[in-house]
Amino acid sequence: MDSDSLHYSVDLAAGNGLTLSSEQRAALQTSLVILKRSYKFSRVLFWGKILGIKCDYFIAQGVEEDEMKKKKSLYSLNCLDWHLLPQATESMTADVALAAQGRFTGDLSHEYEHTETRTEGEGDEATEVEVTVKVNEASRLATTVSNIDKDVSVVPRGAFTKSPSGKVQINRSFGGLHPTEAAKLRNYLHFREPVNLKKKSILEMSDLNPALDFLDPLSEDIPKGSWSLQLERGGTVCVLRSLLWLGLTFFHVPQTPQHGYIYMGDGLINLDLPFML
Amino acid sequence: MEMTEEALNNERLQAAARFKAFMMQNSTKTNFNLYDHLVRLLTKVMDERPENAVDVIEDMSRELKGSILQEKQDTLRDNPSSSSALLLAEQQKTLFKRAASGEGDHEEELVDSPLPNVAELAFFFEQAGVGLGKEEMQRIFLALKQLVDTQCLQRCRIWGKILGTQSNYLVAEGEFREGEGEEEESTEPSNEDEEREEESQEDKDEAELVEAADPPPKSTYKPPPPVPKEENHTGVNKFTYFVCQEPGMPWVRLPVVTPAQLTAARQIRSLFSGRLDVPVVSFPPFPGNEANYLRAQIARISAGTHVSPLGFYQFGEDEGEDEGLRDSFEENPNFEGIHVNEMAESLNLWVHHVQHILTQGRCVWVNITKKSADDVDEDAEEEEKEEEPDEPEPEIGPPLLTPLSEDAKIHDTPPWSSMISSYLIPQFSIAVLRSNLWPGAYAYASGKNFGNVYIGWGLKYIGEAYTPIMLPPPHSEYPSGPEITEAQDPSVEEEQALQAALEEQTAALEETEDLEEEDDDDG
């Protein structure tokens, strides 16, 4: 969620029980302004909080001119001093998926180790080699943030436009979804490079507006039912919760441009989801 | 020269007039014209003076067109919207009405009311970064007041909130006075009877279909006798729980929990839908609907995560029984409060004040027939807190008021994280405890105050991917006997030997018959 509207957006997305204390809010309002200036971001988003056993990580993101590309993630332990997270590469993601188990510890230098035996060579020359994968918590944090962004970052349809040159920008004339439309999952889009859009047939594409529908809608997610859509605060705020990443909350106030998502949780993907539906 | 200039001016004016006429042509579609639109647009720019007007002019133009369309009066009558928001607002309005009562009663109520101070709880938990927002907490406070007004409860507190996929549950914990509030129990067994009847009905129908020529084998499986449930005011049913979906909606009382439900709830992993009457779809099958599942999870969470500072509660002096069996305690009037830093550093200073649930699904072990007790033990592999060694019986859980430092780790994850709420102003901070076993359970302590709350999905952290329990091996369809066991076909030699033996037998028979006949002839 946008750092400028943090003071009220946090309350709107507080339905899952975790909020920020007054001290943290005050600290964020101070430090994010400085952060925006020192990294020359055009906008700073407060991304959320990942709970560790010893202490918690606060995550912020900075965007430059293009809202989607060149997003940078930063972490902080005290809401005041921000440090850049490494970019999540594919090999890093694979290593983290192998080695990292259990909860975040709260210590960035903590090393996760995983040893497994792999067979190398072919035929008679096959030998079993013990391979040890080591990752530290900093890279785990970076890949978790990027995975969550990839899987469950949400924007309402129409909030962002894509110009013919490919630049993604805030749609100034977005006035919010109509209350009846806001109750439909297909009006919410994944804010990431589209995956399913390219696979669509021409017939399916005919209704789509290339300036607005350049993202994948949530209604096509697999498994079906991995989102919980509710109206909260006496039916005035539309709240989406991801069941895949328990802790991700998205809110949108219908008929206003206010929207945002925040992750407050332990940073673990819910692998048991198929059993729960 | 002057003439030409005048003519030029004239021409210009005429050209302008022609262009104005063109701009004032109404569109065949919308019946607007460009001239009026531009006039309005520029007036708007002049009035509002937006920054970088040239960048936003398209949007303003669009907005303007839209606003003109909206102004049109509709020929249809306004439909007063009866959205869900409105219905809820009307329901919540009753929360804000003051109960009309005599002033004399009022003072008595202030003293006797079991209503807890939710605002204080919210204040402390907000410092810990836990909460639902200020207005929401206020609404919950009012809803709880409504509950206290309608039910005669001895004690009452807000237990927490359980999130569901379609709606959420607010949970309140109440304690009736002895002998009160038990009228709903009688309805339960009748339900079970109905179910049984239905089942037997189905069985009959099926039996009619299958002809009697080849009767299906009877199942020899006998279910273990059910563990008797604990009475109201004892063990897992010590408190009564009420849930509502939104503050202002009616509170629904949850049924009492049975050991079978607790055992099943430990084996399944399922999200709540937010409606109490839907069945729980799971394997192994859960006995009951979502209300029962909710009640079972509440019992498990309470047993695992309700903690208080050491010394806040003490055992009553009159009870001389051994420690494991004591199930009641009282507030310690001499409790002085423990310093926040100590509370945050040491788990020894926190104790459980809700009884541990045994694998049997009860707090107090009961001896049902010896065989079945073993079965139950095997089924329930998941332990709440401490791993009990496989003692045959009786089971003994950790006693009440056991320190948290005795809690077992789950996959190297310590069961609790403790911290203080503020490192900047430590002298006024509070000690906060977060459960890693039940994500969403929190406790705080500040001076003589403490509180527990759970806000989450009602799922336990298991440390690894969930594996449903294996299906039991299938029962053999028929008892194995000589007529259905497979045997090798006899070889030619064996057949010949058998035939020879048979022939010999018949020959011997014939001989004896012949002899008898001869005897008859002789006679």
Descriptors for this entry?
heterodimer; A: 277 residues; 8-stranded mixed beta sheet; 7 helices; 28% strand; globular; B: 523 residues; alpha+beta; 13 helices; cilium (chain A)
Low-confidence stretches of chain B: 102-107, 184-203, 370-392
* C-alpha termini separation of chain B: 178 Å
Number of helices of chain A: 7
Taking pLDDT < 50 over at least 5 consecutive residues as the criterion, the unreliable ranges of chain A are none
Arithmetic mean pLDDT of chain B:
78
How much of the sequence of chain B is in beta strands?
5-15%
Structural class per helix/strand content of chain A?
Answer: alpha+beta
InterPro entries (chain B): Radial_spoke
Subcellular location (chain B): Cytoplasm, Cytoskeleton, Cilium axoneme
GO cellular component, one term (chain B): radial spoke
Keywords (chain B): Cell projection, Cilium, Cytoplasm, Cytoskeleton
